[in-house]
Amino acid sequence: MTGGIPDQDGAATLHGLVAAQAARTPHAPAVLSDDAGLTYAELEARAETLAARLAARGVGRNDLVAV
Predict the structure, then answer these.
(1) 32 pairs with which residues across the strands?
(2) What is the pLDDT of residues 19-65, one digit of tens each?
(3) CA torsion, points 33, 19, 27, 46, in degrees to nearest 10?
(4) Ordered structural domains, the chain, with CATH
(5) Which of 22, 41, 42, 62 has the largest CB neighbor count within 10 A?
(6) Burial of 20 (0-12, 13-18, 19+ CB in 10 A)
């Protein structure tokens, strides 16, 4: 792929796309609702926190997690 988008076996991942956008425009809005919002930096930080919590509970690569 081009443009600095993360590549994993030819297919970009959602996490990779968000991380790349957070690096480029950390203060840009990423998630908006009627009464709140998150910047790309905030979204990336929350994703990293969630990943660490899941890993601490034994969730590993390719494990399924219900949302």
Answers:
(1) 37
(2) 999 999 999 999 999 999 999 999 999 999 999 999 999 999 899 99
(3) 60
(4) 1-67 (3.40.50.980)
(5) 22
(6) middle
